[in-house]
Amino acid sequence: MIRTALTAALLATSLACTPTSAASRQAPVHPVRASTPTQDDYADLAPLGEAIGDKRIVMLDELTHGEGNIYESKVHTVRYLHERKGFDLLVLESGLFDVTRLWQSRLPLRANAAGNIFYMYANSAEVWPLYDYLDAQRDAPGAMQLAGFDGRLSGTFSRRQLVTQLRERLLLRPLDEAQKQRLQHHLQQVQRLLDGQLATADAGARQVFLDDSQWLLQLLPAPDAEHGGDVFNSDGFWRRINASLQRMAEVAWQLRAFDEHDPVMAGNLQWLLEQAYPGRKAVVWGHYAHLNKLGGYRDGHPRGFPPVDNVTRALPGALQAQAYVLHYAGAQGSYLDYIDQQVRKVQARPSQLESRLTATAAAAAVFIDLHAGRLPGEDDPASRLWGMDYADELSLPEARQRFDGIWLLDGITPATYETP
User: Domain residues for 213?
Assistant: First the structure.
């Protein structure tokens, strides 16, 4: 009897001392500023830093490429992660070759982004302070480096320099005359691809191009570690360029679905993290479809292509484990459609969680760590967050699978699209 009573007392004490589980406690809703003031102690972003902890990769998404104040929020986040958390690499959803060569050129980024960086990032005024910031700190200790991970190589640097530089690299190999002729023909086709002139190639020309792409791998055999001091002219770098070009051609010929760019983009990002910038802490900036943890296009393809992993899911498990995915969205307002440059309106619905959560904190923008506990409205099965292009919706359980944290605005504004 005494033993039973003692056991019960100890059990009660143990339960009383057990921390409340994340599933049962309320997640704090932290007000945040949407943009960076001239002098900033980043006190509002301290909860974000705590949530990220010692992760090496932070992925910053966007539901469209045209929300101006979400761009401002992301610039604010990048600066905080660099200045307070030691992140020293920014990787944009933009061409691997183009951003590499632009950064190496040391040309002013704002003035030279157009034609070399994805056009919405280049021409949206809300992003320009990011370029000014990167330029201003470029030579400082711990400077943040800039790179691109996209395999769609459509910029001016690609069209004007890629073939010449690839030829120079490959001609370092001891090639016989037949091999030189084969290389010359393939590089001519690569230039046509970069110029948008290869889409009409017939079946025979397509097969030759794909065969020659595989042949190039034999001419670029060196391990990534053997780059002779210039990792961006190494065999490993050119193998990533070759993979990107091959996938560009396959998608142009509709041999593969559009979202099959993602595995190549993931390979480019992995190479940047492991070979070009080993040990650096990276901020990855791109579209929701590429960066969320569950995958890209939920509804498949009308032509019946099988689903593929998006960028995040295609990364090796070790890199996925080091990543924190931060999702940005607004409840209502308008954005600039990056396809046709028209302003689209977004109307909040009664079940909209973005507006309910910003109202909870009486703030225009809030950050919530989804690992910290339950949200207001968690028990309402009708609660929804916006998904792809503000045309799709996510349930809260699905959102928890896709993101680690959410940065929500009460209203979104269209990007200001103009030439710098």
Answer: 158-259
